[in-house]
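User: I'm curious what two different proteins look like when written out as structure tokens. Can you demonstrate?

Assistant: Sure. I'll show them one after the other, since each token string lines up with its own sequence. Here's the first protein:
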Amino acid sequence: MAACFTLAGCVTQPPAPGARHPTLERKIVVGYQGWYRAPGDGAEMGWWHYRAPRTNTFAPGNVGVDYWPDVSELTPAERFATPLRHADGSTAYVFSSHNAATVDRHFQWMRAHGIDAAFLQRFSSPMVPDTERARLHRRAADNVLRYALAAAEHHGRGLVVMYDLSGLPAGAMDAVERDWRHLVDELNVRRSPAYQFHGGKPLVVVWGVGFNDRRAYTLEECASLIRFLKDDPRYGGNTVMLGIPSWWREQKNDASRDPRLHEILRLADILSPWTPGRYRTLAAIRQHAEKLWLPDRAWCTERGIGYMPVVFPGFSWQNLKGVSNQIDRLDGRFLWEQYRLLANHGFTTIYQAMFDEMDEGTQIFKVTSDPPVGTHLLSYAPLPSDYYLRLVGRAAGYFHAGRTLPERIPDFPGAPEINAYLRSKDDEIYRNGESEPVLGAAAEVR
């Protein structure tokens, strides 16, 4: 078979008639959590994802995020006062994802920086119990989906529903199917002009298939969900992408050893291995590309399956988990090296983890250089709050045009201070980043 580097695994399909977002080819997409809540935002979930999960108190020392959002552009109605204070004594504010104006603003940032689509995370575990708490979660998730669809339509971005199966109990996959029926019938997601298609069909993502972290649901239950999304007479007809472990092909480290894994993965249209925590240095990224990305893609191409690699800017969950395992962002060089290798090896779509994930320190959106005091919080300083949006936009410019990315981050037009800072650190960081890593088990599987 001749070499083929397209996402579709050499099998081409016509675009859906009238679809505004007919393909993932030459697209950079982001994961969008949309899970931050605040008292007074209408969700009735308190400081959800801002406070540490081990406590109900939101205060210095009891924070669940490792970065603090930059709310300087937000209107007063979008800002929520917290019990934390900045060094000058002023109140520290946050945003809520349960706010249509804020979600619209996030999609405006995506448009401004060349991000083509967002994969909105929809968590499966709250769909199961018939409790008031679960109903609050479901109502808020529906509202955020409505806001995201409207924002994507407004700003010409694609939107995809991405089911995260983490925490789903055994025997509960029917709850996910029931939820998809709800989204199709009541929220009309597939009728939105913003909904992302691929291979002539609407795209649905199922994240969390084949991990070895003792998930309660089985591979057979995952297969049943895939068949439903693909084959059901009314609710099927979708292109199905699976979020899977990095070592799925060799079935080691973060992947299930179950011999049925490959059989079930072959039911999918696109495979997307999860990488946050799987490498920590520039040399490790290159090793990962050689040992996993390239042979993974070859495996998929031989079977007519698409392949979407995942990149991430760094990692930190000091506040969320109380552990010090930070992966240094290297002022953007860590992320740039991933884009460079993927683009220059002919990969045609990339999943950026994540747009707004401050809990695990993988966010690329705007965070403040002046976080509140009294707790461990990181920032991009001395780089500006929008630096990672600029960086992704810079990579997107090369990627969309099919151009080769240079080894080092090129100068940003009209940003002499950023450029001078990057150039002053380049030689040292690239020299230190050459130490050879040891491939091992994942640091994080979400």
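Here's a second, unrelated protein for contrast:
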Amino acid sequence: MSIAIRKLDSAVPGFREQLSAVLAFEASEDEAIDRAAANILAEVKARGDAAVLEFTQRFDRVQATSVAALEIGHEALQAALAGLPEARRHALQTAADRVRAYHERQKKECGSDGFLYREADGTELGQKVTPLDRVGIYVPGGKAAYPSSVLMNAIPAKVAGVQEVIMVVPTPDGVKNELVLAAAAIAGVDRVFTIGGAQAVGALAYGTATIPQVDKIVGPGNAYVAAAKRRVFGVVGIDMIAGPSEILVICDGATDPDWIAMDLFSQAEHDELAQSILLCPDADYIAKVEASINRLLEDMPRKDVIRTSLTDRGALVKVRDMEEACEIANMIAAEHLEISAQEPQQWADRIRHAGAMFLGRFSSESLGDYCAGPNHVLPTSRTARFSSPLGVYDFQKRSSLIRVSEQGAQTLGRIAAELAYGEGLQAHARSAELRLK
């Protein structure tokens, strides 16, 4: 059965409205979910470990006499790593090494050393960069298990210098994913607790007798986790509220159409709300990609999810030329952008908004998910217009340094006093004036 994927043409009147309809996505702020998350957070804040135990028993069907019994020790993490098949252990270690190398370079290039400069009168101004003390990482469990997310969240935190990384991961019915635990060992996670849901977010945000309060919570989760993260923001930092996964492919019409079809599948298989869009100036090529989609789909284990995703939120778009494709790409501001073209850099130079760009025919998005090196935690739902991938900088904060010399105080004091009087803040003005000669 063929997929009824939308086919749009930028030359047709009303195209922008049609595209906007494809892109439209309202985050499901279900009031019942939000109320449930709020109640769970309130219970955890008030009753700590006892509430965490109750919710873990209710939602994950895990019995424990204490939260401490839900912690997985370092020996178990190392045993999980040692127990992996050699090929998988090597792949996990290689991916971790690449992710670490990239983020170490990022730390060096992104001003993580701070700065200090001296003005002519001896006043010194600058910035001190320091890591967060403690970070919490939420890792999904149950239906989905993502060891790659462990690497992408924990490694940049450790590279940034975070002293303690605490991981929470739900284990419904007590079933632990050994690959996730092995990833925690490789990434240098300090403590792992087998709890999940809004109760895990609450435990990390407020702290309990067993689980220490963190400074920031990162990592994806279900709707309850997202609602809880929204509510605890301000008590702790959060990375982002992620929407469904997205891929946008700009193709010049010369890539193997099977490759492009499978690249579209790679996001569509995440869930029914994921979005996969192709922009191409060649109508014949678009038809070939559509044929590849219909031919390859039946061999996909997650074909039902892919079919729904492509039918409800996918699109094959005929554009006038590659220049227009880039204009449309900037409007879409996709999480993942593939530029599958002969000279990809010339088109990448035109892109202002994208979470991650994959340049050239061999740069499949899936490599970025696992082992290329850059972070796969990316802005979704057009937030790439103002947001960045998760990085070392998300686990650091900056303090301004101000050391005013006696001579500098004479100049700055008069300026500050004048402005303070203008604002009606006399104590501010007098504070500066008392230091004037």
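A detail about the second structure: The radius of gyration is 25 Å.
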